[in-house]
Amino acid sequence: MNFFESIIIAWESIIANKMRSLLTMLGIIIGVSSVITVSALGQGGRAAINKEMDAFGANRFGIYYKYDPDNPITDADIFTLQDVAAIKEISPAVENIAPINWDSANIRSKGKEIVVEIAATTADYARIANLKLDAGRFFSYEDDNAKRYVAIISESLANELFGSSTAIGKKIMVSNRPFKVIGVLAREESIFSMGQDSKLMYIPISTYFSFSGSNWINSIQGKAVSQTEVDKAIEHSLSILHRRHRNKDKYDAWNSQKEMDSVNKVTGIVTLVISAIAGISLLVGGIGIMNIMLVSVTERTREIGIRKALGAREIDIMIQFLIESLVLSFFGGILGMFLGFGVSKIIAWFIKIPTFISWQMIALAFTFSAGVGVCFGLYPTQKAAYQDPIEALRYE
Questions:
Q1: Which residues, at least 6 apart from 103, have a Cβ–Cβ distance to it below 8 Å?
Q2: CB proximity list for 133: less than 8 A, separation 6 or greater
Q3: Residue 351 CB neighbour total at 10 angstroms
Q4: pLDDT, tens digit, 9 for 90 and up, residues 254-299
Q5: Which terminus of the chain, N or C, has less C-beta within 10 A?
Q6: 59 near 224, Cβ under 8 Å?
């Protein structure tokens, strides 16, 4: 009996027991589909996060106060607008830098009162954060220096306050002060926002100081001239701040590249762990194949005896049953692959991320499923091959 005849016999055996074969393949189907789904979503999620971080700015960094109860921040350590100007002037590695204070406030317009997030900053922040406008303009250095009551609002806030009518030129009351809307931010879909656009408002930081009663700057954000200059830009900024404030170790920094690396590391570990858990179902499927092959060997004991009596070698019997085990795992792998494709596409559509399915992933899934078929098929095939033909012929 040649290889192709063995495949035909194996296929006929599977067709003759359709339901049993399907139930046997179920573990392989679930295992392969789970591995492909998790891997596709994991790699797609990482690609989406990297795209988001690229849009955020790979050469972006921030300076903030370091929390240390033994070395607390004092008034003398607080960032000033002069600090920001000094960093921009002195450091050749810094392209743009801006102070930014985050706050919240109740705003009123046309009888509506809404709690919004306020970002008080300077004109440079628009370039640092790659802000895009749907209408109007961002505030200028002149607006900031003159402490003008102007604001840029998010699209969702504009829609809630003014509906379909234009927001440009409209008034918004913030702390009983009228702010004129001069710009509306473009809506940007993000996997982090899950389709939700925050109610956000940007105002000049000098204007914020004039009505908030505080001149504290909460943090500083900057943009290096290139991705390779980020560390140098941070080093320069911290050095300038410590020198100007005559202190030491009061500030710390973050940069977007390190944040991206951390996220990729975490998503990689999570994907690996979940894939390993999903792979357990492949082992369960292998046990199912072994059990069903043992049943098949028992049912076909007389057939084995007849074949051996007619001259079939032990290796011929082993190959036949091993091929049956491989065919079961192979078709289980194919069904699992298509199921994995479908499930990953559906989930990705709901959570708005791409899917990434590589040939390496498919090859790995098939190799593993074939390996399961071989490993768990060996014992039943050996049991079939080494039966005594006389005892096998007596079996009822």
A1: 117, 118, 120, 208, 212
A2: 152, 183, 184, 185, 186
A3: 13
A4: 988 777 777 778 777 877 787 777 777 777 777 777 877 777 777 7
A5: C
A6: yes
